[in-house]
Amino acid sequence: MTVTDPALAWGPGLTVGRIGDVTVGHEEGPYLAPYAPRLILGDEGAEEPEWSPPREDRAPDEVTVVRQADGVTFGVRHHIEPETWDLRVWLRNGRTSPITLDRCVLALNPAPREYRPDGAWPGTIVPNPSVGWVWPAASAGLIALAADGALIGLRVRQGELLSASLGLPPDIDPAGLSKLRPPEGFQDEWLWLDGGTTLLPGQQAVFALQGRLYDSWAAVGGLVPAWLPPLSVAPDAVIEIDRPDAIVTAPAALEADDLDGRTFLRGEGPVKVTLTQNNKRVTLDAAFAFDVPGRTAELACDWTSPYLPDLEVATGLVVAAHWPAWDEGWDEVTGTLAERAWERLGRLAQGREEEVYGETGLLLAGLAATGQDVAADTTGVVAEALEFAHQRVGLGLAVAELSVAGLLRERDLGPVQALVDQIDAWPAGRDWLAELEWDAALGRVPAQSELTKLMLLLGAGLPGALVCGVSGVPSGDESVARAVAVASLLGDRAQLAGDWPTTLGQAAELARWKVLAKFATDLTPVAWLALAPT
Question: At 31, which helix (H) or strand (E)?
């Protein structure tokens, strides 16, 4: 650990910044930063004092950064021992009156771009990208930072690590929060104190993490409580929590039955669950996958609308073809979508409109799934539309769909091979996942470094949020869903080396259910999941 010069040294080159923030490994590595909150002093937020410049104190094994604001102290301290790194954050009210706090944010930038030693772009891909992982489970919260081949796990020792999605209380005005947000480029933020918290005169709030070096993601996974069941489950599945002495609460929409100290949870969609025991709470983000045919039945009327956006034509066609909602009349729904899909391909072929990310692959796969011989298209629309495709995003899955459809219907696969040859002649694009998808569709076995990145993108079978710094792959559910489909394409060929919490297939299954739990709000990831071979 260093502060400008090597005042402290621990682990993989941790660097302490001027506000008590930490960077792990190289300068593009994971970045962890506790931010001073906005204070609301007096009645109705009449006063909003500014924090003083940070004052830094050093010792051989410690760095402390302190800021003041009208009698309130905000401090960050990093302390090292031979085997541990302790991070302590505190707020102390030295005033004679109470203060109200805005959200106290802990920001994590998991290096959204891969580090390139030569500084070039796109440059050379590093096999082990930087990673940040957060499990915002209150008193059981965990963080992991990985860079330069080193892996640090941090557990909450005091206070709570919370999800920022908890929101603000109604009496806190969010209009002035822009100055509290982490700088642009940060992927996520978590809380160690929720908005609206009040500190009485002389009262202090403390948040503390303790970190150790670990040799594998399986070892980091060992920090997760042994009683924790998988929190992402299939439709109609049950989550069983075996904590006899804990009080389990969940939203009213969730069914909970207690039997012999065990709690059985049933639900649909993302659900917050809270366990309280010995004055400590653990918050869990459960994900109950939606029943897809049931949801597609609700969407069918929208899909036949002439005003349906182009991307929804592609995603709707894929979902409708793979998950029909009823027996009679469904052909009319897919037929309408297929007609619109051909129209869209025609406009793309003429270069009249720009392709939406991955849209061409979804259109081809959806048309193939409805039984149309897309590869044998005699009008040249498909070949011309491919010229405007966004690299190879979705095209590996489309080719796999075309091949399966052709075999099932005993068609000549020569046109499919010609299509493959056309696409395979393209130079490699900047979307790493699209290139891995293409290789998987053609039966090529990826290198271990590629499988490692795929595992991390899937979440490695861990709860919480794991963001992998892979170039050209945006974070979010759509990329995770694409990773699930790629893992399914690879199948048994993907033998991942090393020690992991789960296998690649198990991680893909958990990620699948987690994405499907959000089916009510976003259809695009579901379309990518529909293309995953089962």
Answer: strand 31-34
